[in-house]
Specification:
Largest sheet: 5 strands, antiparallel
CATH architecture of the largest domain: 2-Layer Sandwich
Order of helices and strands: EHEHEEEHHHHHHEEEEEEEEEHHH
Helix content: 25-40%
Radius of gyration: 19 Å
Strand content: 15-25%
CATH topology of the largest domain: Uridine Diphospho-n-acetylenolpyruvylglucosamine Reductase, domain 3
Number of helices: 11
Length: 288
């Protein structure tokens, strides 16, 4: 690796001031699990890294009186996995994290870094989109709130400016919604997925009132499937409806081929696993 500087600001405001919107070689670093791999492979050669580890309060998990969860961007995946508040309010996150990479990575990787990296294979973004989560972004002009589903612009791309940072993740109360994430891998359970499907349902029995369906890994970014949601909304989750939902998903999702499977293979996975994800969500009791 080429030599580089490390800046250690003590506030988000100071960190933002160091970041240069015109210089792509200056970047923030949280856990650094992805960034360090890029540096070792010479894909990214920084001149300066802005460490966020010295900023207090960025690793907090707070439960608001209305049931909303507020999570700091430096919260590690392990802390998220073992949080009683997260387990109570969004148990699907805890379930998802159990097969997110391995414990060594989860002990270091952070929530903010996971989102800012923009990797379409990540397990957490589709789950957060299904939960209706949003992020607070801080930049030189102040703060703005952005739904997670609007964060991703393309393959490894986000809408964040180079001098903007994720300051907080907010997960709204889920009420009785039933949520599930299904991960399909061609290797071990904690491998990168060939397909990820997150589903959130407002339902009574098998009758679905509304649905949020998100596909990831097989697409250039985590993406909501609106046509699939429309098939499910107001329907009873029988075999015919789930088959139509699978076909709708295949029709609207722009599938990409990679080392984990061809387009045809991933389309077939999507066709089948939309229904399985809906079934899994309906079998859950829902968040409180």
């Amino acid at each position: 690796m080429t030599p580089f500087e490390i800046a250690e600001p003590r506030s988000l405001k100071a960190a933002v001031a160091i970041l240069d919107p015109e210089d792509p070689t200056v970047r923030p670093i949280g856990g650094g699990t992805a960034l360090m791999l890029m540096m070792k492979a010479a894909v990214f050669q920084p001149t300066k890294l802005v460490s966020l580890r010295g900023i207090k309060g960025l690793s907090d998990i707070a439960e608001r009186p209305n049931g909303e969860l507020r999570i700091g961007p430096m919260t590690t995946m392990s802390a998220l996995e073992h949080s009683a508040a997260v387990r109570s309010r969004a148990p699907v996150i805890v379930e998802t994290l159990r097969t997110l990479s391995n414990v060594r990575v989860r002990n270091v990787a952070t929530v903010g870094g996971n989102l800012a990296h923009g990797d379409p294979h990540m397990d957490l973004p589709p789950v957060l989109m299904a939960l209706g989560a949003s992020i607070v972004v801080v930049g030189p002009d102040g703060k703005r709130t952005l739904p997670v589903e609007e964060l991703f612009a393309g393959y490894y791309e986000t809408v964040l400016a180079r001098n903007e940072l994720i300051a907080e993740l907010r997960i709204p109360p889920q009420g009785a919604r039933r949520v599930a994430y299904v991960k399909v891998t061609t290797g071990s359970a904690d491998d990168w997925p060939a397909l990820g499907i997150a589903v959130s349902l407002e339902a009574k029995g098998e009758a679905i009132k509304s649905a949020r369906v998100v596909v990831s890994a097989a697409t250039e970014k985590a993406t909501r499937l609106s046509a699939t949601e429309a098939v499910l909304a107001g329907a009873t989750a029988d075999a015919a409806v789930l088959a139509r939902a699978g076909e709708a998903a295949v029709s609207e999702a722009e599938i990409l081929a990679d080392v984990r499977g061809s387009i045809a293979y991933k389309r077939e996975l999507l066709r089948v696993y939309v229904g399985r994800a809906v079934r899994r969500a309906l079998s859950n009791k829902g968040a409180h």
